[in-house]
Amino acid sequence: MRTPKRKLIKTSFDARFSPNGQLLASLSRDIVLWSCPDTKKIWKAHPFSHPSYVAFSPDSSLLVVKSTSGDRCLLSCTAGDVISDFKGQSHGEGGNLLFAEDGESIVDGSWSGWHSVLTIKGEILFEEHFANEMVTGILRHPDGKFWFRHQRRGTDPQDGSPTQYLIGRTFPFSRGDFQKIPIPFYSYQGASFSPNGQVLAILSGHNPNVLSVFEFPTMQFVKKTELPAAFRLGCCLRYSPNGDIIAVISSTLLVCLAAKDLSIQSCREIPRGCSIDFSPTGSHLVVGSWSVGEVFSVEEVTKSQIVPIDPEKVDQA
């Protein structure tokens, strides 16, 4: 039987499927757009240095990209043209950014403690600052609410109050109007809502990394499991669209677990893994890597062992 051709996307710090499932964006030195499911390169662009996060608009026609310094730009998915560069509107470094459901607004957070919303034309719609706090990322709940990952700066509080928590906002945002939920860990690497929004999975710990599941928003503990000893420097996780699988990526391994009991379904070597995303239908899984990213069929990745790739043998995009 003929072995299927590998679907490699070369170096990819971040990789995301479009909402319509027909496109895939990956980031390295350049921003690269691929067709799905055949993984053929459509175009690549280099609007600025060090792109780090990417998000599609709800209609899959636009890409917003953020650099490590916090610069942002908006590109057309048709040809990779820059539509807006948002110069002078950054609050510096930060985590990921997301489109609002209207397709006209972009929600962002910064390590300097800012929540912000700007339009695709560059108009600032909303800003609120949280002093002495870092915003390390943004989650989107299935009900549409945005949850900002907050981390307190400075020394540990003597009163034992949490250093990690989520701040939830309903779009459009209003200053001072938010919900705050503590996270029961001193630090954690990533989190993902289940498709029905009833639970939140959190990746935490070091040697070993631990995957824990909590009811949301009560944060009542449900279950947890330790990940294999070879799973080092875990960075992110995702639920599959049907809620059956939790995929977790680290700098060494991709681990797929059954969501119902956290039993490991597959475990395979992924050198320098750094991001993960499911296609909207749940048929494919993309793994970003500082070495060589790849697109897998979910059936393949959960059942068959994949031979590791030698990064030296793969050309860069």
How would you explain this protein's 3D organization?
The protein has 317 residues and is mainly beta. It has a domain at 187-305: YVTN repeat-like/Quinoprotein amine dehydrogenase (Methylamine Dehydrogenase, Chain H, 7 Propeller). It is 2% helix and 47% strand. The chain contains one helix and 28 strands. The protein has one helix at 298-303, and strands at residues 7-10, 14-17, 23-27, 31-35, 41-45, 51-56, 62-67, 72-76, 82-84, 98-99, 105-109, 114-119, 124-129, 133-140, 146-152, 164-169, 179-182, 188-193, 199-204, 210-215, 221-226, 236-239, 245-249, 253-258, 264-269, 273-278, 284-289, 293-297. Strands 1-28-27-26 form a four-stranded antiparallel sheet. A hairpin with a 5-residue loop joins β14 (133-140) and β15. The two termini are 30 Å apart. Mean pLDDT is 91; it is low at 313-317.
Provide the fold topology.
Layout: E1 7-10, E2 14-17, E3 23-27, E4 31-35, E5 41-45, E6 51-56, E7 62-67, E8 72-76, E9 82-84, E10 98-99, E11 105-109, E12 114-119, E13 124-129, E14 133-140, E15 146-152, E16 164-169, E17 179-182, E18 188-193, E19 199-204, E20 210-215, E21 221-226, E22 236-239, E23 245-249, E24 253-258, E25 264-269, E26 273-278, E27 284-289, E28 293-297, H1 298-303
Largest sheet: 4 strands, antiparallel
Distance between the termini: 30 Å
Structural class by secondary-structure content: mainly beta
Alpha-carbon Rg, integer: 19 Å
CATH class category of the domain at 187-305: Mainly Beta
Which characteristics define this entry?
317 residues, mainly beta, Methylamine Dehydrogenase, Chain H, four-stranded antiparallel beta sheet, disordered C terminus
